[in-house]
User: What shape does this take?
Amino acid sequence: MQRIIILDFGSQTTQLIGRRVRELHTFCEILPYDKYPVDDPDVIGVILSGSPLSVYAADAVHPDLSAFLGRLPVLGICYGAQLLSYSLGGSVEPVGTREYGRASLNSIDGKCRLFSGIKTPSQVWMSHGDSITALPDGYRPVASTDSVRLAAFEAVDAPVWGVQFHPEVMHTTEGFRLLENFVVGICGSRCEWTPDSFVESSVQELRATLGDDKVVLGLSGGVDSSVAAVLLNRAVGANLTCIFVNHGLLRKNEFENVMEDYNGLGLNVIGVDASQEFLSALAGESDPERKRKIIGGKFVEVFNAEAAKIGGARWLAQGTIYPDRIESSNITGKVIKSHHNVGGLPKEMKLKLCEPLKWLFKDEVRAVGLSLGMPRRMVFRHPFPGPGLAVRILGDITPEKVRILQDVDDIFMRGLRDNGLYDKVWQAGAILLPVRTVGVMGDERTYERAVVLRAVTSSDAMTADWADLPSAFLRNVSNEIINKVKGVNRVCYDISSKPPATIEWE
Ligand code: XMP
Assistant: This one.
């Protein structure tokens, strides 16, 4: 399959470049800057990402570009452009103040293929502290802003381009077209990476790899494991057994509803209600990380016991997706976020790992789900943390607190759905605070629990904004919660963004 290689120099927007290329129905791989796959005959072009570093700094990285430079089309973005220029004999210097934000291309060379169909003025997004001040021999400028003369350049005799701005971000209004010009117009992508073609080729590959082997898969109710299950079911049918464990910390009626959906899809699912076991193991525990560990450990125990009953399984399937696996260049040594879902399952089971979605971004998983005929409510279900309500009940967990939070959450989620707001937010839920507050109901003083509603917009959970839900909606939800959920007399709305807050409270 044709592919674009994106070499990652540690920019926060590298994954976004990948997603844009995929939106052009072109497969791409994001690799650390020094891991170019020299022997891969399917590469049709290379993109060099941005970076927090300076090309002239002592800690800068200057990988060998000779494996592809001059042979395949290359597009350098920000640091990538500076690296191309600098390493070929041009110069890059610090600008007085870091240039960050919107700028306007006021001059574009109409003959440059990269800018085909893009007219001046064209808004672009800049984020750089260095500028290219002189180009190498054999290169010429093709676009500029009022303050950045060399905003884009190309080689005269080779397929090499560099842009100082970021075409992958939304604020660059013609950025998608520019990437299309590169990926399709210049690299010659046949745009064959579609949900249907993915389903077709995956089914064939899975059949060839798995043969008549038995496969087990842990379902969570979430979109990734569900799509993986439906895809595998199409490939190997009855040889797939899914296990869905109810740890007692799911949403209200979620276990029953999701089991019904799975059965409707023809999946072979074993539903295990281990709520009591989990709640007993969690009794008295308030520490968030220990709660996570207890749930993780119990899950493995319950899952193992069920999987052993199947007998003869050779494969463990998981809904791991591409962002979980991208080996980030992590150039500055700072970990921004460690992922929750990689690894985890029982080594002692000696099962081979099958990860049919390992190349897909989240939006592609959803598109594949739709292509497989899955219901929208399943495909567009909000993300939900593995430990469930355990990390939304601050402090220790009791069956009564679970009941209260499930009721509150249910009112909030139903409200979002009924008011057409569910699909407008990335994720929503309720949090039960470990405090009581004074209230007055009728003529009576009350002293009851406080809950927080949280809804965020996001594209990948790495960053998130609090969702600006209509105040009339929040008012109605708050009234309904206080009137209907016994034990709650106060409702708050969380207006913190990530960073500096996180989506979950624990
Ligand atoms: P935070 O709170 O880190 O959450 O901003 C980012 C995303 O990850 C989910 N999350 C988890 N998912 N196990 C999971 O499977 C966990 O322990 C966990 N903690 C947070 C969270 O719901 C959000 O989508």
